[in-house]
Specification:
With 434 residues, the chain is α/β, with parallel strands linked by helices. The protein contains 17 helices and 13 strands. The protein starts with a helix and ends in a 17-residue tail after the last helix.
């Protein structure tokens, strides 16, 4: 036993002596994120997305996926303690106002300027502006999800003559539906209006800002009255089964619906299965612009990041066009830089990526964001818009009276929570419908 111990000690001594002088463990970056939570997405992030970065930088990335509550609590606690363990973060734009208010993140404006000046890196301006909170650039855009219109190519023959489908207006959409109905006798426009569908997002994030310039403040305005009159007519050319649709890829593939609006993730299966049969179009424009709802995920650097230089290097890698496309292919989140659309391989993903880019970079684009600050009452927001739709478009109630009644509920919700107005409204607090 004594001889074995001596031999072991000798072997350890030789190995230590043979190590190169000055060698040190590779730098390890801790990246905490509220996104990519499913186990398969975490494994994809570690083994596919981050592997090229680790190989080229000789750094290791410790990817930590967490729920929003513990994620924010940890960052706030470390900011208050003056000691940090997280180098870089990735989370929804709606989490950043609290992090900024708590002094938990650094200003990344300088990093963004360096990246945006590269020939391969043009960020969508509205997504950059979403990160401008409290007088600072709180995050660099990382990825986005949104909603689009998908259409069978056979439906394009009925699109209003002389009009550009990539610059479609709400009047064009209505005329398109009327043309299809006149030619086929069928109502072929579809919306996901079932309890599991996302039609409420269309109402507050698309129609309202496009017609009134606001999600909340102009809720009962004359412009809103005109919008609801329009929606009654649009519903008249929409497929009667829209109340049963949750995911629009299914009726599109069955051919029941020729023109459908939905979340990109819910349309993507149709494009993957039959990429040659569908086109992706930007959502329509109204009198106040082409509003679209963007779910933005941003990359930030905690106030007490142990290694902010390494974090900035990882941000550069994650926003490269090819990395953005890799992210699209892996988890279905769309790019935030214009150049990525040109790197997407052919097929359904390319068709959808081009549609997303065309929507986000349109000259009349108006980015709407999800409401924040409503706390426990967040779950009341979308149902209020859906209830308004049912009362007006389905039951035929008086528009002005319904809007006045519903506006009182909306005002009470914002007054009791002191929540700010969601973009494209100005962020006044509390937000009150005029």
């Amino acid at each position: 036993m004594k001889l074995w111990r001596i031999a072991t000690l000798l072997a350890v001594t030789i190995l230590a002596a043979s190590a190169p002088l000055g060698s040190a463990p590779a730098v390890e970056i801790t990246w905490s994120s509220t996104q990519l939570n499913p186990v398969n997405e975490q494994e994809w992030a570690r083994n596919t997305m981050l592997r090229p970065f680790e190989e080229e930088s000789s750094m290791r990335v410790r990817f930590v996926s967490d729920l929003a509550g513990p994620f924010i609590d940890r960052l706030v606690a470390e900011a208050r303690a003056g000691r940090g363990s997280v180098d870089i973060i990735g989370t929804l734009h709606g989490d950043y106002p609290l992090l900024v208010a708590e002094g938990a993140v650094q200003d990344v404006a300088a990093i963004l300027r360096q990246l945006d000046g590269r020939p391969d890196r043009t960020f969508v301006p509205d997504l950059v502006r979403a990160g401008q909170i409290g007088g600072m650039q709180s995050f660099v855009p990382w990825m986005q999800a949104t909603y689009l219109i998908a259409a069978h190519k056979q439906a394009m023959r009925y699109f209003p003559a002389g009009r550009d489908p990539m610059r479609m207006t709400y009047d064009d959409l209505l005329q398109w539906g009327e043309n299809i109905r006149s030619a086929t006798g069928q109502r072929r426009i579809g919306f996901p209006a079932s309890p599991t569908g996302l039609y409420g997002r269309f109402l507050h994030g698309y129609a309202y800002p496009s017609f009134t310039g606001s999600q909340v403040k102009k809720f009962k305005s004359p412009e809103a009255v005109s919008m609801w009159r329009y929606l009654r007519r649009l519903w008249g050319v929409s497929h009667p089964s829209s109340f049963t649709y949750g995911f629009m890829n299914e009726p599109l593939l069955r051919g029941e619906v020729w023109v459908a609006w939905d979340h990109v993730a819910r349309l993507l299966p149709a494009f993957r299965e039959r990429p040659d049969d569908f086109v992706a179009l930007p959502s329509p424009a109204g009198p106040r612009g082409r509003s679209f709802l963007s779910v933005i995920v941003g990359l930030g650097i905690p106030k007490n990041s142990p290694n902010p230089e390494a974090a900035a290097r990882l941000i550069e890698y994650l926003t490269r066009p090819r990395t953005q496309v890799l992210t699209l292919q892996g988890v279905g989140f769309f790019p935030v830089v214009r150049e990525a659309a040109g790197v997407v391989p052919t097929g359904g993903l390319k068709v959808m990526a081009e549609g997303v880019t065309a929507q986000a970079t349109a000259t009349d684009a108006r980015t709407a964001l999800l409401p924040i600050g409503l706390g426990a009452r967040t779950g009341e927001f979308v149902p209020l818009y859906l209830e308004t739709f049912t009362l007006i478009a389905i039951q035929g109630r008086n528009i002005e009276q319904v809007l006045n009644d519903q506006a009182r509920k909306l005002e009470e919700m914002y007054r009791t929570t002191n929540a700010p107005c969601p973009p494209p409204d100005s962020a006044e607090r509390p937000c009150r419908p005029d």
